[in-house]
Amino acid sequence: MERLLTMFEEADPFATWWPTIAALTVGIVITVRTLMSGQRCPNDNQIKEQIVVVTGGNSGIGFEIAQALAGRGGRIILACRNLEAGKRAAAIIKRELGCRTPLNSLDEDDNPEDRYFVEARYLDLCSLRSVHHFAGQLMAEFERIDVLVNNAGVVFANTQMPTEDGFERHSQVNYLAPFLLTHLLLPHLQRSEQGRILFVSAHAHQGAKIDFDDPLNVGTWSVKFHAREAFAHSKLCVLLATRWMARELKGTSVTVNCCTPGLVRGTRHFRNSPLMSSLCVKAVTYPWMWLFMKNAYEGAQCAIRLATDPQLKEVTGEYFNDCEIAASSVTGQDKELAKKLYMQTIKTLESVTKLTVDREEYGLDLQLEMESELRLEEPAEAEPETETNQAADEKKWQGNGETKQP
């Protein structure tokens, strides 16, 4: 031991370059990691008693968004395909937030967890009928909705296996179903003092292929899409629809924006990725993923700001990255393409979901308080619903100015 201590005392750090090289390497790694982690939400604004819907809130980025907004006083509904996982996530959020709550801020008989309203509801974006049912439940239970975060999505899904509604999976889960959910909930969002709609896009939209005559990609070309191309296309659709929807909602109390979380590791999106194909590949790529990719908490920061910052009250139709307005691809700024996509989306959903579209009643360009009905074509053999269930499940929908009966 004495000999070892003597060696340390007599050691000269300047006699070799290795300590300097090690220090520079550590400094570079820390700097890169800090830069790649992105900007944090620059405020801690409260959203007390605001009703927030977060799709895909049981894990990853959605979980972090839900936890942050619950901690700021929001009433959170986790819309999840895996309901059991959603219930576990809700319990974890309430438990963790309750543990952070100072006991002296509560009444003696209060349980810290009881201060936070977080619950899970079933929503399968692969089924448009599930979207209708989910929206009907919310509208029957709540008088308004303040924030809708369309976060759930898929990547590296099987492009050859369509959904039950006949659409390519990336297209429906990432774009069509959130688009439909947004329009179904729009009347309740307009009842909010300042309703906010958030779509999660991605950097991948910059490499998307899109046909002006078939922007929704429902033609035969869709079968040629690789999973990466299908994902990029769906995220470009999200961006374009955001821009045109903002124009349609001009003059109302509702804003609509989209954001990219950046490259994020540690989410279920990578379960089908080639990077997760084997243990050896994981071992090689994980250090680089840790260095150059955000974690879920960092990826959630932009959406948290969009949901809470009063400075963004009048900001709509924008694309955000790292909590700031960012430039999208040139295609993502094409107004004519955005309009074409928006109108085709409405017509396609009309034909598939048998919805009634009435712009004037929904008042896309008018600031009105309204009621709406969801009209679905039920099978002939279906049992008649009760009057209560019909009131909860019926809804009209906004569109392109035409009225189409089911």
TrEMBL record:
It holds the Pfam family adh_short. The keyword Oxidoreductase applies. It comes from the Eukaryota. Keywords: Oxidoreductase. GO terms for molecular function: all-trans-retinol dehydrogenase (NADP+) activity. Residues 370-406 are annotated as: Disordered. Its EC number is 1.1.1.300. SUPFAM superfamilies: NAD(P)-binding Rossmann-fold domains. The keyword Oxidoreductase applies. PANTHER family: PHOSPHATIDYLINOSITOL-GLYCAN BIOSYNTHESIS CLASS F PROTEIN, PHOSPHATIDYLINOSITOL-GLYCAN BIOSYNTHESIS CLASS F PROTEIN-RELATED. This is Nazgul, isoform A.
